[in-house]
Amino acid sequence: MNILVINGPNLNMLGIREPAIYGSATYQDLVDYIQSEADALGVAVSFYQSNHEGDLVDAIQAAYGKQDGIVINPGAYTHTSVALLDAVKAVGIPTVEVHISDPDTREEFRKVSYIRQACAATVKGLGFPGYIKALRLLCGAEE
């Protein structure tokens, strides 16, 4: 199984950006953490991070015919991007939306997720372990 893990804007700043919300671990720590679990599950993972909406759309489209699942943390684009929603719908790849924090407990505008309606599941508020839950959901290792 091949899984693409996509992270949107400002996720490259993990460890620096609002550590009270996102923790002190870095983006590379996140990648290493996910890779370790993927290795244990026997799943191939690839990673993509961008601060640019169109680049994220391109990554989703490029996954067509190559990836069996997508784990995506769209960052702030969660609340603004119909383009990401349309891209996930277009490729038809099972996708799980992930958020390190729980957007529903934060500012009012963060309670809206455009991409959610195209996703098989949403995992939020679990920190880095949320990515593992998403990975396991796509692999059928968790319900």
Chart the SSEs and their pairings.
Elements: E1 2-7, H1 19-22, H2 27-41, E2 44-49, H3 53-62, E3 69-73, H4 82-91, E4 95-99, E5 121-124, H5 129-139
Parallel strand pairs: 1-2, 1-3, 3-4, 4-5
Helix pairs in contact: 2-5, 3-4
Explain the overall architecture:
This protein is α/β, with parallel strands linked by helices and 143 residues long. The mean pLDDT is 96. The longest helix has 15 residues, at 27-41. The chain is built from 5 helices and 5 strands. It has a 5-stranded parallel beta sheet, with helices on both faces. Strand 3 (69-73), helix 4 (82-91) and strand 4 (95-99) form a beta-alpha-beta unit.
User: What's the N-to-C terminus distance?
Assistant: 17 Å
Summed up, the helix count is 5
Report the portion of residues in β strands: 15-25%
Label the structural class: alpha/beta
What is the N-to-C succession of helices and strands?
A: EHHEHEHEEH
Radius of gyration: 14 Å
With strands numbered from the N-terminus, the spatial order across the biggest sheet is 2-1-3-4-5
Biggest β-sheet: count, sense, barrel?
5 strands, parallel
- Low-confidence segments, ≥5 residues, pLDDT <50? none
Shape: globular
**Roughly what is the average pLDDT, rounded to an integer?**
96
- Estimate the helix proportion, in percent: 25-40%
For the secondary structure, the number of strands is: 5
